[in-house]
Design goal:
Number of helices: 11
Order of helices and strands: HEEEHEEHHHHEHEHEEHHH
Radius of gyration: 19 Å
Strand content: 15-25%
Oligomer: single chain
Length: about 270
């Protein structure tokens, strides 16, 4: 078992000074992950995971429960100890959208107050609050709504707006639609794709919704403690890979064909640009 891990500050230093990634590699890439290992006690949670993240792409991570997906995200954010290297481009600014936050329905703040609190910390103007709100489809009335009274869809949009403050170059989504119904889920995925194009974002997404992955993803990482497969959807999403990933036959629900066609066309257009 590997017992020697670097502190978070050392990891940042290593990323910029050990020469493992040449500066010209960051012209097209936002992130390099090499030989990533994570232990919780004697439990080997992630084993020798390596991949690169291209600028402007949507990188989707799939896998069964307990496969290490959220642990991987925490490693990318340097929130837990690990061995190996996680090297972000020096110009990276990261936004994060969690699975869910339980808001107290009696919390005495509205959405504008919540966004304003982060804006004040970052030194953002009120204009930016309204800009990110408009980008995710939140109107002035919704901004005045108490946080605990927002619908599931609007609350998820609020979390995305919160992540957009500070003009991130990368947004990490940890199963952002886990608590939403199908219609709201599709709207969130559609919004993610629109924001990626409009703001030039690079997206890292953990998702259980395999039916939409082919239309959303440029690259898919199939993870079950180790990287089972890494590549474009047409290579990663096969019966053989699913059998290895989920240790048996795996079926997934197919969303409405009309929505799939819209996303498929956008994905096709990306490769023509």
């Amino acid at each position: 078992m590997q017992k020697h891990f670097k502190k978070r500050s050392q990891l940042h230093s290593k990323a910029s000074s050990d020469g493992s990634v040449a500066s010209n590699e960051f012209v097209k890439h936002a992130l390099f992950v090499r030989d990533l290992n994570v232990f919780f006690g004697d439990h080997h949670v992630l084993q020798d995971v390596s991949f690169t993240l291209k600028r402007g792409e949507t990188f989707v991570i799939i896998g069964p429960n307990g496969s290490g997906k959220t642990v991987l995200l925490k490693s990318l954010l340097h929130l837990i100890p690990f061995s190996g290297s996680v090297t972000w481009s020096p110009d990276t600014r990261i936004g994060y959208v969690p699975q869910k936050i339980d808001a107290d329905r009696h919390l005495p703040i509205n959405l504008e107050n919540l966004l304003g609190a982060k804006a004040a910390i970052l030194g953002c103007s009120r204009k930016e609050i309204f800009s990110v709100s408009e980008d995710v489809g939140l109107d002035a009335e919704t901004l005045k709504t108490p946080v605990g009274h927002l619908s599931g869809g609007n609350f998820q949009k609020a979390l995305i707006a919160f992540a957009l403050l500070g003009d991130p170059t990368v947004i990490i989504f940890d199963e952002p639609t886990a608590s939403l119904d199908e219609l709201a889920e599709e709207h969130v995925y559609d919004l993610m794709d629109v924001l990626r194009k409009k703001r030039g974002l690079t997206i890292v997404l953990v998702s259980h919704d395999l039916s939409l992955v082919p239309a959303l993803a440029n690259t898919v990482l199939c993870l079950n403690k180790v990287a089972i497969c890494l590549g474009p959807p047409q290579e990663a999403l096969t019966k053989e890979i699913f059998a290895k990933l989920y240790q048996g036959p795996h079926k997934f629900y197919s969303h409405s064909s009309s929505h799939r066609k819209i996303l498929d066309q956008r994905h096709h257009d990306d490769h023509l640009e």
